[in-house]
Specification:
The chain is built from 12 helices and 5 strands. By secondary structure, the chain is of the alpha+beta class. The chain has a single domain, classed as Outer membrane efflux proteins (OEP) (Up-down Bundle).
Length: 460
């Protein structure tokens, strides 16, 4: 009995294997199969911009952040997980092996039935697996583009913080020069007061200004600590990790064409590619919802074990095929009759497609707005910088020299000298701030363009 059971079960599996294998091969070698689908090439704009950076310290910080940032690592893992879904959705469901043991065996002409084994396999309507696999691949591609968008945003943020740090370095140098001058003037003022030439008010005013200036160092250091901690957080380092002093870059005027930059950004931004992939995925979802109106199939084999007849008539005159087992083929067809459910599924897929298209439109509007805003602000920043460097700083330096000469001659007092020095200090600070702002806006523009400005035609 058991030997016959093993033999018949093996025979049933062998008979069913060609059918299942042929169905699997059909989907694995079809036009939408993974084996025929080329790997998705994801443009990496962050790496492209990183290669264009000339500041070694900045390049090191950005590279470290791109490598160690937890948000990037998390989104990368999510994208890899999505890519692993495609082989799952394209595979046939597992075949089902069933059995029926007869408590009261049905008596047939050739003997009583004692056990029936079934092996069934579900087969979807042609094209359903292709559509599911294609949708999974497109969603995985969208997630990979999301990773690149995250990396690009991270690169832009680290560069912005670095230039803010560079401004603080320059601001501290300017403040130190200002303090040195104040201390020199305070010594001269005390000497003049001791000889009866100067007034005590001059000494007190200068000393108060020195105290306020020394307090600026504390504020600068506090801001520097905050910026360094933020940069170290982005690169998953302890907040106290040392960052070498940053320097402001050399700047040049950029004459940029809005139309060409916008068109380039629409092509290169990973957010646009991700939106396009999601639109394609939702279009496949609509086709899949339409295929739900088509039936699915089920095929299978049955094998029934039959014992020889043991009744008197069967023993005396056994029938032809006495005790022969029974082999059958099964077939089934689902009937999609619940139209309200199918209609709701198609409506859901259509709304998801509309949502994906509107999301892409929102991305394009954001890119156009961001580039347009920066294109308008950059010339104003440059004009401000030229006004400060070419006119105001020269006037402030000339004013200090004139007041110093008058102070020695006795024409001006220490308060006049203090006012002139403060104007020069404010001018130097404004220049450093304008340089940092211009560098930051250029950085933001490269983030909007998803590429270095050196690859675009400009007039310097």
């Amino acid at each position: 009995m058991y030997q016959k059971l093993e033999t018949c079960l093996a025979a049933a599996l062998v008979l069913a294997a060609p059918l299942i294998g042929q169905q699997n091969q059909e989907w694995e070698t079809g036009s939408g199969g993974v084996d025929d689908t080329p790997p998705v090439e994801v443009h990496a704009p962050a790496d492209h911009i990183l290669q264009s950076l000339s500041d070694a310290e900045l390049s090191s910080l950005v590279s470290d952040a791109l490598t160690r940032n937890p948000a990037v690592a998390s989104s990368s893992a999510r994208a890899r997980a999505a890519a692993a879904r495609a082989p799952q959705v394209k595979g046939l469901p597992d075949p089902v092996l069933g059995g029926t043991g007869w408590v009261k065996s049905p008596e047939t002409r050739t003997g009583p039935q004692v056990l029936t084994l079934t092996l069934t396999q579900s087969l979807p309507w042609l094209g359903k697996f292709d559509a599911k696999e294609q949708a999974a691949l497109l969603e995985a591609s969208a997630l990979h583009f999301d990773v690149e968008a995250t990396r690009l945003e991270l690169l832009t943020t680290v560069r912005r913080l670095y230039y803010e740090l560079a401004f603080l370095v320059r601001y501290k140098e300017i403040t130190q020069d200002y303090l040195d001058h104040l201390q020199q003037h305070e010594e001269i003022s005390r000497a003049r007061y001791a000889t009866g030439i100067g007034a005590s008010q001059d000494v007190i005013k200068l000393q108060a200004e020195i105290t306020l200036t020394e307090n600026l160092f504390l504020d600068i250091d506090q801001r520097r600590i905050d910026l360094e901690a933020e940069i170290n957080k982005l690169r998953d380092r302890p907040a106290s990790t040392l960052i070498l002093p940053a320097g402001l870059p050399r700047l040049a005027e950029m004459d940029l064409d809005f139309g060409s930059l916008r068109d380039a950004a629409m092509q290169d931004r990973p957010e646009v590619a991700a939106a396009n992939a999601r639109i394609a995925a939702t279009e496949v979802g609509v086709r899949l919802a339409e295929k739900d109106y088509r039936p699915d199939f089920k095929v299978g084999l049955t094998y029934t074990f039959v014992e020889p007849r043991e009744d008197r008539a069967g023993i005396e005159s056994p029938p032809e095929g006495n005790g022969d087992d029974i082999l059958g083929i099964q077939g089934g067809l689902s009937i999609p009759i619940w139209r309200k459910k199918l209609k709701a599924g198609l409506q859901e897929a259509s709304e998801l497609e509309l949502s994906a298209r509107e999301a892409r439109r929102n991305v394009l509007a954001g890119i156009e707005s961001g580039i347009g805003d920066l294109i308008q602000r950059l010339p104003l920043n440059w004009q401000q910088l030229r006004l400060l460097e070419d006119i105001l700083i020269l006037q402030a330096e000339a004013s200090v020299q004139s007041v110093e000469s008058g102070y020695v001659a006795g024409t001006f007092n220490a308060l006049d000298l203090l006012d002139a020095e403060r104007v020069l200090f404010d001018a130097d600070t404004a220049i450093a701030r304008a340089q940092a702002d211009y560098a930051i806006r250029l950085t933001q523009l490269e983030g909007e363009l998803a590429g270095p400005l050196t690859q675009y035609p400009t007039t310097e």
